[in-house]
Amino acid sequence: MSEEYKSLQQIIDFRMEKLNKLREASVNPYPHKYEPTHKSQYILNHYDELEGQTVCVAGRIMALRKMGKASFAHVMDSAGRIQIFIRRDDVGEDIYNHFKLLDIGDYAGVEGEIFTTKTGEITIRTNKLTILAKSIRPLPMVKEKDGQVFDAFSDKEQRYRNRHLDLIVNPEVRKIFVKRARIIQEVRQALDEQGFLEVETPVLQPLYGGANARPFTTYHNSLDQKLYLRIADELYLKRLIIGGFDRVYEIAKDFRNEGMDRNHNPEFTML
Q1: Strand pairing of 225-229 and 122-133?
Q2: CA–CA separation, 59 vs 133, rounded Å?
Q3: Phi/psi at 192 (nearest 5 deg)?
Q4: C-beta atoms surrounding 144 within 10 Å
Q5: Kind and range of the H or E element at 91?
Q6: Neighbours of 118 (CB within 10 A)
Q7: CA angle 69, 73, 78 (to 5 degrees)
Q8: How far apart are CA 109 and CA 131, in angstroms?
Q9: CA nearest 117: which of 125, 109, 128, 108?
Q10: How far is CA 47 from CA 54, 113, 158, 269, in A?
Q11: Residue 129 in contact with residue 110, Cβ under 8 Å?
């Protein structure tokens, strides 16, 4: 029966059975090290020069089509996703049986040659499979057809409370994280080129100021003193200017103990 029609506990129990079968077969389902040679997107972008060569990728299994003696899967890494093809005659019966114990959400390392299927999809023909992590809990159900995604993990409350799942099943969210990091990188570079010095100022402060906001409070046991999470960086930056640094900046977390919604968070980044 498909996992789609089972309860969460049934799925967990079923996956635990598979995990135990792997261990009984002397397979370590959680190895500590694996070194891929390429990212999936690099392979897709450089197929002409990599065709027929052996590559090694690692990632999360996002789609499975298990058949008799041959199967397909999609593996997703930090750069994208690529299809793999695995055949019993290529990897041997034992490894193929291990593959059949995998589920969507598991991590695997794949080594093999690059080729194109009859439908034109760039694929890795597996000659070596390494199980990197056996997942126990299932991912949210996401269905795709003709390039369209439906029945996705779209409830905003669930997405914000389970950001790790949101990143796995919604590629657009991953792009936002990457864009944010690049924006901060560009801001740093621009300020550095203008002679500004990046500094760090205290997060825990005996006095709060720099903005009209309510602070979070905490207590320092060793000092026997009440402290506040900063609501702004301004006061300590001004001290640095007084000390002789005429151009300083800080990209840091500030905290304000006030209302919150999807556009306002008590913990936020300020320049």
Answers
A1: unpaired
A2: 10
A3: -60, -40
A4: 13
A5: helix 88-91
A6: 5
A7: 155
A8: 6
A9: 125
A10: 12, 11, 38, 40
A11: yes
Tens-of-pLDDT digits for all 271 residues of the chain? 556 557 889 999 999 999 999 999 999 999 999 999 999 999 999 999 999 999 999 999 999 999 889 999 999 999 899 999 999 999 999 999 999 999 999 999 999 999 999 999 999 999 999 999 999 999 886 666 555 555 567 788 888 888 989 888 888 898 999 999 999 999 999 999 999 999 999 999 999 988 888 999 999 999 999 999 999 999 999 999 999 999 999 999 999 998 888 788 899 999 9
- The pTM assigned to this predicted structure is 0.78
CA dihedral 44, 46, 48, 53 (to 10 degrees): -90
Three-state helix/strand/coil letters over 244-270: CCCCEECCEEEECCCCCECCECCEEEE
What are the start-end ranges of the E strands in the chain?
54-65, 70-76, 81-87, 107-116, 122-133, 143-145, 148-150, 197-198, 204-205, 217-220, 225-229, 248-249, 252-255, 267-270
Distance CA 44, CA 48 (A): 9
Strand, helix or coil at 136? coil
Write down all domains in the chain, each with its CATH number in brackets: 3-139 (2.40.50.140), 195-270 (no CATH)
DSSP code of residue 122:
E
Q: How far apart are CA 215 and CA 120, in angstroms?
A: 58
Q: What are the tokens at 181?
A: 């990091």
144, 119, 3, 9: which is closest to 63 by C-alpha?
144
